[in-house]
Design a protein that fits this description.
By secondary structure, the protein is mainly beta. The protein is 10% helix and 22% strand. A nine-stranded mixed beta barrel has the order 2-4-5-6-7-8-9-10-11. It starts with a helix and ends in a 26-residue tail after the last strand.
Length: 333
């Protein structure tokens, strides 16, 4: 726990300097801005890019981990609709015409093949209750957790805004728009030397232990508090849920597939698996959603990209504005 605390303390105390990414110098900020506008736009894909498990042929860090650090984002949609990612929330009018279901991205559920979570009857009824009360919550449990700036949960965090992956000896750290997640990494044969927390301790993003197997980070997640939702459509898991995750990275370092199998006989009739495709975003234009790297303001002459410093408050505007006094016009330093 001391190592985890030191890593997070180092990140937090480092401020924005810890997020800086150096770029080639140009003569002026205006010139750099013009160059950035030439970058391709991050387009949502209608199909799921598949990455196959295999050997890792890319760069490695000093502790032997495949080097997968950088800025990433999912490729098909956010968390609006879990089983129809590019569809609208049921009961709401689509912002744009949707077209046939066959022309949209598939369900995030890849097993069972029907694309639906195999809920027990009582759990399906509760999911429908959450969905019905999403837009006008009359009880605290109906309020979308992200609206209260809570972490997104082990899987939902990968559907939200872009995020950063950092690596340290024996650890992989995810820095999300809302919250962070730390995975302890060791050899598969030494996993028992890093046991999970006491199961009485429940966390928004769970407690993660993993190991590298070629190009795949294999992770076991326990200690879930089950307060997060998979989407605005109300899907959820339970406090006894265990998750087996596989982060399968392409050797070109540009994409990875995230697969997670959820097991909880108190909520589901059988284990089920979701998939979220992701790709690196540094080479795309900043868009405030998938790629949140902006031009840093500092006293030096070097032009630098950095992730937004975001303030999460209920009813806030874009990136810390709105409900924060002066936030909308405050410069990022």
């Amino acid at each position: 726990m001391n190592i985890q605390r030191n890593i997070l303390t180092k990140y937090l105390s480092g401020g924005l300097l810890g997020l800086l990414i150096a770029l080639p110098a140009v003569s002026s900020t205006q010139e750099f801005t013009a160059e950035r506008e030439k970058y391709p736009k991050f387009e949502r894909e209608k199909t799921v890019y598949k990455v196959a498990p295999g050997k890792w042929k890319g760069a490695r860090l000093e502790d032997g981990q495949p080097d997968v650090q950088g800025q990433w984002s999912n490729t098909i949609s956010n968390h609006t609709n879990f089983t129809d990612p590019q569809g609208a929330t049921p009961g709401e009018k689509p912002r744009t015409p949707l077209g046939p279901r066959s022309e949209r991205a598939p369900s995030r559920v890849i097993d069972p093949v029907d694309g639906q979570i195999p809920f027990q009857p009582w759990a399906r009824a509760l999911q429908q209750e959450y969905l019905k009360n999403f837009s006008d919550p009359i009880k605290p449990e109906y309020v979308e957790p992200l609206a209260r700036c809570a972490p997104g949960g082990p899987s939902k965090s990968f559907m939200w805004h872009g995020y950063e992956i950092r690596q340290y000896p024996g650890y992989v750290l995810f820095l999300f728009d809302s919250g962070s997640r730390l995975i302890q990494v060791s050899d598969k044969k030494n996993l028992e030397k890093k046991p999970h927390l006491n199961q009485k301790i429940k966390l928004w993003n769970g407690d993660s232990r993993g190991y590298w197997e070629g190009n795949t980070l294999v992770v076991e997640v326990k200690n879930n508090n089950s307060k997060s939702r998979f989407g605005r459509t109300g899907e959820f898991s339970g406090t006894e849920t265990s998750i087996q995750e596989r982060f399968i990275f392409d050797n070109n370092g540009e994409r990875y597939s995230y697969q997670a199998t959820y097991t909880d006989p108190t909520v589901f009739t059988r284990p089920w698996t979701l998939e979220i495709p992701a790709r690196r975003v540094e080479k795309f234009a900043e868009d405030g959603w998938n790629n949140q790297l902006a031009i840093a303001q500092h006293d030096g002459k070097e032009l630098i990209l950095e992730a937004y410093e975001q303030i999460c408050t209920e009813n806030n505007g874009g990136f810390g504005g709105g409900a924060v006094i002066g936030g909308a016009s405050a410069a990022i330093h």
